[in-house]
Design brief:
This protein has 277 residues and is of the alpha/beta class. It has two domains: 184 residues, Vaccinia Virus protein VP39 (Rossmann fold, 3-Layer(aba) Sandwich); 86 residues, Ubiquitin-like (UB roll). It is built from eight helices and 17 strands. The strands form five sheets. Strands 2-1-5-6-10-9 form a six-stranded mixed sheet, sandwiched between helices. The longest helix is centred in the middle third of the chain and has 13 residues. The radius of gyration is 22 Å and the shape is elongated. The structure holds S-adenosylmethionine and FE2/S2 (inorganic) cluster. The site of FE2/S2 (inorganic) cluster has 13 residues, from loops. FE2/S2 (inorganic) cluster binds next to loops.
Length: 277
């Protein structure tokens, strides 16, 4: 599956490598890639070496201690020389406290190349997909072992990715009710309310209203789907795109650079005025 998603060559950081079985398997299957294993615990580094020796792979680097919750990746030693083309993390989010999800997303956003991909593998709960009996039992057993563990909701995980500036770009169903998810860095723009307004980050994959709210900008809204016009403002600089057919703006408002931030996605740095036209 990774061969379908990733280019022919690159450098991958594996988070939570554990025994190293995946590192050896992927390094053998992806000969054009350099694989950097890591884990919060160094106990299993011997096992990683053993798996790689057995597989006869030479494209696996020395494992490093990396706790996603720590401010620095890796925890100590030389900094990573360059951003990674891929970051891979299997079976960690449900066997660690929920805080590791935000930390994984924020860290991946810091360490991924602009064209890179964060790939996660594991079981998830999904709002519109019935949870299999196997996953329900697994969730219960995890919570019994540690109340901070448990299967995560795909929506919650995706929300943490969005906050970090990553967007869910692919979802693959895998054996035993697991999912392989691919998150990619979003385009990052600067927005201001008024030419002299305080700049804030406007992500290309979410609406201007969502980015404004995340930055603490107080902008009125109601329907949030482009029909009520409560959020109307003026786009005095930059461009936006809409994912719905032309939203609730009249031809006159459009001619006056009217913008509906609840449904407008930035495609460049932008300056708004308003609310109101
Ligand atoms: C169930 S094992 C998964 C190992 C391997 N990825 C696999 O799929 O077989 C969970 C791994 O997550 C690691 N882990 C837990 N919390 C972590 C954290 N905060 N940062 C990095 N790794 C962590 C554990 O040390 C353990 O090796
Ligand atoms: S909040 Fe209703 S159109 Fe934007």
């Amino acid at each position: 599956m990774l061969r379908r998603i990733l280019p022919a060559q690159g450098v991958a950081l594996e988070i939570a490598s554990g025994t190293g079985q995946h590192a050896a398997w992927f390094a053998a299957g992806l000969p054009g890639w350099q694989w950097q294993p890591s884990d919060a615990q160094a106990d299993a580094f011997g096992s990683i070496a053993a798996w790689c020796a057995q597989a006869g792979v030479a494209n696996v680097r020395e494992p490093v201690v990396l706790d996603v919750l720590a401010p620095r990746w890796p925890a100590s030693g030389a900094a990573f020389a360059a951003p990674f083309d891929a970051i891979y993390c299997a079976n960690m989010l449900h066997i660690s406290p929920w805080a590791t999800c935000a930390a994984l997303m924020q860290g991946a956003a810091r360490h991924l190349a602009p064209q890179g991909a964060l790939v996660t593998y594991g079981p998830y709960l999904e709002r519109d997909v019935p949870t299999s009996p196997g996953n329900r039992a697994f969730d219960a057993s995890l919570r019994q072992r540690n109340p901070a563990w448990g299967l995560r909701s795909l929506e919650d995980v995706t929300h943490q990715a969005t906050l970090a500036g990553l967007r869910l770009s692919e979802r693959f169903e895998m054996p035993a009710n697991n999912l392989l998810l691919v998150f990619r860095p979003s385009q990052r723009f600067t927005a201001r309310v008024g030419q002299d307004g305080k700049p804030f980050t406007a992500w290309g994959h979410q609406t201007l209203l969502a980015s404004a709210e995340q930055a603490g900008v107080n902008w009125p809204s109601s329907c949030r789907n482009g029909t009520c016009r409560t959020c109307i403002g003026r786009l005095v600089q930059g461009q936006v795109r809409y994912e719905i057919p032309w939203p609730g703006l009249s031809i006159e408002e459009k001619a006056e650079d009217g913008v509906l931030p609840c449904v407008a996605f930035p495609t460049s740095d932008v300056v708004l005025t308003g609310p109101g036209l």
